[in-house]
Amino acid sequence: MTTPCLRAQRKEISQARSYIKSGANLDKAAKLMKDLLAKDSANRHNPKIYTTWFEAVEKQYAVGNEKLYLKQAYDTAALFNQAKEMFDIISQLDSIDQSQRKKYSEILNNYRPNLYFGGSFFVRKGQYNNAFDLFDCYIGTATQPMFARFKYSQKDGRLTEAAYWATYSGYMLKSPEKIMKFADMAEGDTAKLKYTLRYKAEAYQQLNDDENYLATLKRGFKAYPEFRYFFPQLMDYYNSRNDYDSALATANEALQVDSTDVLFLFAKSTLLLNMGRNDECVRVSERIIHINDTLPMPYYNLGMALLNKVLDLEKDIRKNKKEITEVYRQALPYMEKYRALAPDEKKKWAPALYRIYLNLNMGKQFEEIDRIINI
């Protein structure tokens, strides 16, 4: 039974070599070899199949590269995929026969930069699966025994950048496994470290790894407090767990970096409102409005903080009647300003204005807001 199989192998290999020699039907030559490997697992131990397959793909690559050099029409993506295919072929060959390792490692060393350029090409095209695969192959050569003598890990300055773009591709694919594969190496690209930390944090979040998610957010916030990712995510994390003390400590830490940052101030204002620290919320909200009077939410926070103060005063209405009326008067312009700036947020300003108009005996305004609420 073995003899017919060997004859079939020889026939297919001979046909493929004929195609390669003529320079025509190179894709058919490669397919013949791939089919041989797929048909019978015993074929996977024949080095000639791999070397023939490699020659077919290498010649395809040479044809395409020449066309690009001459500025003739050619599929650039196919060229980069052929570069990767050559590495895949020799990796399989090397797993069964190391006798040709030196020869093919030297050949592939010349092609290796095109794995990096190919990955970059696919990133620009938004083809992130292909981009990740090429960067994965490029980085993988740094630890493969057949390339050991080239010392890529010590000599290749592009490794950390390739790791970053692989991590970025994993992020765009929403694949935590692909994000994490090279994320630690990607941290070596310090110019993009804040983005790498963001991708890692999101990978941990997708994996429901709260401990590492929080640790990465803290690390990112400490290094890049003004980067518009770590601080908001930290605040959301603490708020979702009602850990207002940690959230407030984070807001105060951020304000030590920039005491006029509206995002940091607004976060503190909202926290103080949620914590029932109404006088402090009023002061912080007033500060935000002084810095930027076009933002709606500080007016809402300030108005609600005043209305919350009324609730405390209403525990003894007789004693605090004048003060209650005064606080309603104070809240009125802020809540009306919020309505003007955020007209679609009826669920927020309508109930608040209803209380204010009712308690200030503003009949005309009360009737209008009553109609809005009951529509």
How would you describe the overall organization of this protein?
By secondary structure, the protein is mainly α. It contains 21 helices and no strands. The longest helix has 25 residues, at 317-341.
Features:
mainly alpha; elongated
The helix fraction, in percent, is over 70%
Compute the average pLDDT: 94
Q: Cα-atom Rg, whole angstroms? A: 33 Å
Query: Strand share of the residues?
Result: under 5%
Topology:
Blueprint: H1 2-22, H2 26-39, H3 47-69, H4 76-96, H5 101-111, H6 113-125, H7 128-140, H8 152-155, H9 159-172, H10 176-181, H11 183-186, H12 193-206, H13 210-223, H14 230-240, H15 244-257, H16 262-274, H17 278-291, H18 296-313, H19 317-341, H20 346-359, H21 363-373
Helix pairs in contact: 1-2, 1-3, 2-3, 3-4, 4-5, 4-6, 4-7, 6-7, 6-9, 7-9, 9-12, 12-13, 13-14, 14-15, 15-16, 16-17, 16-18, 17-18, 18-19, 19-20, 20-21
Quick take:
It is built from 21 helices and no strands.
